[in-house]
Amino acid sequence: MRFLCRAILAVLLSWCLGNFGTVAQKPPKREFRAVWIATVDNIDWPSLKGMPADSQRVEFVKILDQHQRAGINAVVVQIRAAADAFYAKGSEPWSEWLTGRQGVAPMPFYDPLEFMIKETHDRGMEFHAWFNLDRATFSRIASVAPDHISARRPDWMLLYGGRKLFNLGLPEVRNYITGIVTNIVRNYDVDGIHFDDYFYPYGIAGQVVRDDATYKTYYNGMNRDNWRRDNVDRLILQLRDSIQAIKPYVKFGVSPFGVWKNRSQDPEGSPTTGGLTSYFDLYADTRKWIREGWIDYIAPQVYFSTDFVKVPYRGLVDWWIKNGFNRHLYIGQGAFRIGRPTSRDQAWGDPVEMPTQLRYNRQYPQIHGSIFFSSKSLTSNLNGVRDSLLTDFYRYPALIPPMPWKDPEPPLAPKDLKATASPEGVELFWQEPAPAPDGDRANYYVVYRFDRKGKVDLDDPRHILAICVGEHTTRFVDRTAEKDRRYAYVVTSVDRLHNESAPTEVTVRVPEQ
User: Fold this and answer.
1) Residue 252, SS3?
2) Which of 171, 193, 225, 421 has the highest CB neighbour number within 10 Å of its CB?
3) Which among 287, 290, 132 has a CA at the least distance from the CA of 198?
4) pLDDT of 380 over the 80 cut
């Protein structure tokens, strides 16, 4: 495995030798900074259906590098878009958006998921595997392999809007979906399992979800709406338990439609007047899942502007802040709407709309970060959004917030830290610590630098010099150290769930020559 000791370029370029008096607000030390990479219909990657495997790899690496330079520290990649697969170790057929025809393997052969995870981890970023769970087919013209689940089990399918959807009221369907997910957890080194907003389908005029027979069999005294919500609840809870049993450190998150209920429908709902809600229309009781601790994070899709009257950005975000229930809250940012105003939501034409939203988020510690939809909105730099991240919001690095309910134990501190001034700069060496009491080892290291006369403040990410990825990466060279200066260097260990150790410190004087 290739280990990377990643210098934080933006910090080095703007290093102020400990004097930060001109900066009005300390940037966050902890923040989840993620982007969705959509594969369905070739939205983000691969950019062309049937692209040669070598070109797919080159393109994905380019995407990762662009996001890493912009300060992104996690990617949420769609690996199952329509009961298909962007991975080799599974029972569902290869995706047509990968190879051009469903069921056909990439040529030359490789495992895209294995490759993507390795490249992501080598850059010190988290990889969350994103599943679309309700969709079995995408459209009438999409290719479907002969052994596709919709062909093998037509009795599991609901026809709606020209698509075949999984009937979540059937226990065997929920077991099947759970098996698909747990196969990934067992066989791949993912950091998280992620579902989007599709449970029961978005309504289409004149269309009816025909699950009458299933309802009559399994309704258990509930009305139809509550029964559908109970089906989704059962699936979420089953997945939570299964993931926890296999790899307790793997995170489980959902990105629902932004509005749970309107206040006019429930006094506990949000101050919104939009027609669609996840609770009544998609049968997803998302607030219940976060309240009960069934999921580790929720990323509501707040794809509305600050000026949108029916669903104002600030009002909906405020509601989620009050309903985060001590789990992680990431705001789903509608980057795809930048520069595309509509008659109902004109603020998206304003270049400062997204910066305004991000500044609003930063005021509240209950918001743990953002996920942007989607990748190409950032790489295309719509209205300069990527520039804003690179030079302002994500100018300094941030560690991903820890999840104490999953792992409260920090790793042990690095051992035997030494610093030596050399013609190359200041060379730091340390030893890997022993496992912590819970068995966790260091997953990466953080290197800080301070002017010897200044205060050692590990909460200020402007002092982070490098993030060294890989448990055996125990060397770093500071090539920006100035002559005839005395510095204090601090190195900490960080485990897989981003708990940080106590500091290990060393001082060194850089000679004049």
Assistant:
1) strand
2) 193
3) 132
4) yes
Stronger pLDDT, 454 or 356, i.e. the higher one: 356
Per-residue pLDDT tens digits for 109-154: 999 999 999 999 999 999 999 999 999 999 888 899 999 999 999 9
Coil vs helix vs strand at 493 = strand
Contacts of 6 (CB under 8 A, 6+ apart): 123, 124, 466, 467, 468, 469
Strands 444-451, 485-494: pairing kind:
antiparallel
Give the closest residue to 51 by CA, choosing from 4, 8, 108. Answer: 108
What average pLDDT score do residues 27-54 get? 97
pTM, two decimals, is 0.95
DSSP 102: T
3-state secondary structure of 440: coil
Residue 368 dihedral angles phi and psi, to the nearest 5° = -95, 0
Greatest Cα-to-Cα distance within the chain, rounded to the nearest angstrom: 85
**Is pLDDT at 23 greater than 90 in this prediction?**
no
DSSP letters spanning 327-392: SEEEEEE-GGGTT---SS-GGGGSTTHHHHHHHHHHT-TT--EEEES-HHHHHTTGGGHHHHIIII
- Three-class SS of residue 411? coil
Separation of alpha carbons 228 and 419, rounded Å? 62
Tokens for 69, please give them. 């330079």
Nearest to 475 by CA among 419, 404, 401, 398: 419
Q: What is the CA radius of gyration of the chain?
A: 24
Across the range 30-36, mean pLDDT stands at: 98
- State the DSSP H helix or E strand holding residue 179, giving kind and residue range, or none if neither: helix 171-187
Q: Is the pLDDT of residue 224 over 50?
A: yes
Closest C-alpha to 462, from 6, 4, 25: 25
Laid out side by side, the sheet with 415-422 consists of 415-422, 425-431, 475-478
**Do the strands 464-469 and 126-131 form a parallel or antiparallel pair, or are they unpaired?**
unpaired
- Give pLDDT, residue 5: 64
- Cα three-residue angle 216-222-227, rounded to 5 degrees: 75
Contacts of 216 (CB under 8 A, 6+ apart): none
Angle at 71 between CA 413 and CA 397, to 5 degrees: 35
pLDDT tens digit string along 426-484?
A: 999 999 999 999 999 999 999 999 998 878 999 999 999 999 997 679 999 999 999 99
Beta strand extents in 187-300 (DSSP E only): 192-195, 251-254, 297-298
| Beta pairing class for 301-302 and 328-333 | parallel
Q: Which residues, other chains included, contact 76 with Cβ-Cβ below 8 Å and sequence gap of 6+?
A: 34, 35, 36, 37, 128, 130, 192, 194, 371
What domains appear along the chain, each with residue ranges and CATH number? 29-393 (3.20.20.80), 415-510 (2.60.40.10)
Chain center to CA of 447 = 24
Q: What value does the mean pLDDT take over residues 169-187?
A: 98
**Two structure tokens written together for 439:** 């068995």
Determine the Cα–Cα distance for residues 173 and 139; give it in Å rounded to an integer.
21
**Which structure tokens are listed for 449?**
């630098």
